[in-house]
Amino acid sequence: MSGASVPRRVLSFDSNPPYTLPLRFFLSAPLFVLLACALLFWQGDAALASRWSPYTLAITHLLVLGCISMTMLGALMQMLPVVAGISLPAVLRIGPLVHAGLCGGSLLLGAAFCWQLPWLFIAAGLLLLATLLLFVGACTIGLWQQPDSGAAEVVAAIRQSLAALLVTITLGALLASAFVWPAAIGLPLQLLTDLHALWGLLGWVGLLVMGIAWQVVPMFMVTEPYPLKARSRVSTTLFLLLCAVSMSSTLSGAGQSFHQLALALLVLGYGGFAGLTLYLLARRKRPSADTTTLYWRTAMAFLLLAGLLALLIQLPAGLLPYALPVYATELAIGVLLLTGVALCAINGMLYKIVPFLTWYHLQETRALGNSVPNVNQIIPPQHGRWQYYLHGCAVLLLLAACYAPALLCRPAAALMALASLALCANLLTAVRLYRRLRRAVGA
């Protein structure tokens, strides 16, 4: 059966969790971007001087944990019951605990990197470990259930992303131990750091974005479904390539050649996903592109650019007519993956998920004569578009700042902070509408 012949499934909207459960995650995420931007503005080019700079590590983890993972956990609590008919156990009790633990752990870890205090690493590590394992445990119990018909590929990618999260957590715990007891634990820190970043960005984040895309790109952006072969094979292949890259990372000789080949195939696999998504978006059934479509097109374009840079810096010296500064290019790849791919995809989805949830949970107020705006009008489209332009310009400025940090670092941080403030204001527009109409129901 071809991808185009796959029927569009009826989603289980009756299984929606309460409005406030995912919203607490979604509204917290832009605040951590603001905190990361403030830290970057304060430190300036010193925050980009070295991948081992404590401020670089603090900014990275504020973005990955406080914003990206924050949004993803909230989205999974929202999507699993609706998309796959999978209910997480005791989600109304677990959700607030996970939110509080992730907020506190992200702040503690950022402070630990900035101040280099062992007790802060211990506190942050224990809190984050307990929080993430609680969430993964709840998801494991939930995903043991049989998913709804047609959701198998989405659930498979989610399972693989959660397995990648477990690997990321394990490597992160080892690295935190090295910060606390540097003399007692003889670990290859550079290798563990590379693998931690690999599994966190391409495994946990990349596979989850891919699994969500199987569902939301056709549904929200009105495209044809992804081909069945892509949905059923790509995420599994990429997960196996992640394993191959990790296990071959310490080999030499022919083993090192195998490692480079597996890494190149991994990059090409994600490039193929980006190219296929752009192809479907180019053939979508609506001629005008809304904010979500613009964000996803941009995210996939940045993913292709990040892959191209990753392949170029692996080439032997002399094959290029010019020399790429390796550290600045590695930093640029990280900026592209974090702010260009992950944040663009997340921002785009928030402009669909939050208005839809607001509209859905306000339907009962219609019986009392209240008028509920159309989903596309809950957040004014022009507000979302302006925020998209701000974010896109901020990503480009951050990308340029990797090569000229002294000149562009602080302007890039200020522009990204402005884009995050605009996102927060747009999301609060929907929340204020919800509260106003709910108060009218109570009156």
TrEMBL record:
Asked if the keyword Membrane belongs to this entry, the reply reads: yes
- Alphabetical UniProt keywords: Membrane, Transmembrane, Transmembrane helix
Instruction: Give the superkingdom in one word.
Output: Bacteria
Mark the transmembrane ranges.
21-42, 62-83, 90-113, 119-141, 162-185, 197-222, 234-255, 261-282, 294-319, 331-351, 388-406, 412-434
Any idea what this protein is called?
Permease
Q: Which organism is it from?
A: Duganella fentianensis
